[in-house]
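TICKET: design request
STATUS: open
ATTACHED STRUCTURE:
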């Protein structure tokens, strides 16, 4: 299973925020923003800070994606379009 933060980036667009704005609002480092951008795992403390800054729930910023499903389109990898 992998983590996808695509929901976070869509939420930032909806709120007209940039990654730098999130970094300042959530008081997180640039390296954490980089990890989020690479869909790498971060601590729940970081996720709570992001949720508090955006006034949302954790399900609004991330999702768990099974290994055989593409995070971009929801289809199994290798499946024809």
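STATUS: resolved
RESOLUTION: sequence designed for all positions
ATTACHED SEQUENCE:
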């Amino acid at each position: 299973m992998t983590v996808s933060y695509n929901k976070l980036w869509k939420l930032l667009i909806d709120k007209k925020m940039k990654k730098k704005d999130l970094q300042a609002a959530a008081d997180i480092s640039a390296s954490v923003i980089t990890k989020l951008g690479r869909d790498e795992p971060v601590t729940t403390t970081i996720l709570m800070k992001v949720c508090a800054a955006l006034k949302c729930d954790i399900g609004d910023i991330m999702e768990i994606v099974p290994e055989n499903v593409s995070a971009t389109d929801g289809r199994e990898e290798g499946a024809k379009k």
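CLOSING REMARK: Strands lie at 2-4, 63-65. The first strand starts at residue 2 and ends at 4.
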